[in-house]
Amino acid sequence: MLEKKQNPLFVGTLAKGLRLLRAFDESHVSLSLAELVTLTGLEKSAVQRMAHTLHQEGMLERDPGTRRYRPSHAWLELAYAYYWSDPLISRVLPKLVEFSRVHGETVNLAQISCDHIIYSLRLPNQRTQFAASIVGRRVPALGTASGRVILATWSDDEVAHALETWPIRAATPKTITDRGAIADGIACASQDGYSITQGQMMLNEISLAVPIVGIDGRANAALQVAVSSHSFDIERVREELLPALLDTASGIPG
Fold first, then answer.
1. What is the pLDDT of residues 71-91, one digit of tens each?
2. Where are the beta strands (DSSP E) in 46-105?
3. Which of 177, 185, 207, 254 is the most exposed, fewest CB within 10 Å of its CB?
4. Residue 5: left (phi > 0), alpha (psi -120 to 50), or beta?
5. Interatomic CA distance for residues 68 and 75, integer angstroms
């Protein structure tokens, strides 16, 4: 942050406003002024001015009774603009639709976002939990099959840096938090060309991911299929879904 502040092009007030917007997530869908102060670490007067401005500009809605703020529909307009701006989205969507039609399982596009992966496209099936069907969900990359298979295409130095500094969150009792074990998983993904995890982000979920590789051999995105361990075991995932997912990914230029 110090380096950013020393940059003459860096606008601190705008950065603070973005910090306020980022306080909203699945655990904080509406926030009071006091909660915004706590979550952002900013002074109350600054938060009050920014929240008021964002409300006036249509980025936040404010309940007149509780005075709590929540994101407005304007956020969807930003997402709409993003979908038109990212050429990968238009290349991947028809492939995911076809995969979902043929196999009837949840399939997603995961993209790397700093030290997290973010789900940019999600085609759920009827068994998918609500939280797992929402586009924009962002989770620590090291805990996911998608994050590991993307890292498997990166340089040794980049992988070492990620293993040392990227966050790990125990989302379930089965989440692997040992960085050495995660390193082994990335090494296996590098050798195999895919990654399979079980119970890492959600209990009873098996996740299969394959990279979308560019002409330089590097990936910044992956296709991911999520199935229930009540219906599948890992061997069945390998036999029935892996070949089709590899074939789908190979037809998408990275």
1. 999 999 999 998 999 999 999
2. 60-62, 69-71
3. 177
4. alpha
5. 17
